[in-house]
Amino acid sequence: MNVFMWTLEETAKGLRISSAWLSEQVEKGNILCSRDEKGQYIFDSLAIMKWLSSKIDVKSMVLASVSDNVIVVYRAVADAKKAGELKPGPCEVCGSTDKVHGHHENYDRPLDLTWLCPKHHSARHKAMRVSANN
Question: Is the pTM of this model over 0.85?
Answer without folding.
Answer: no
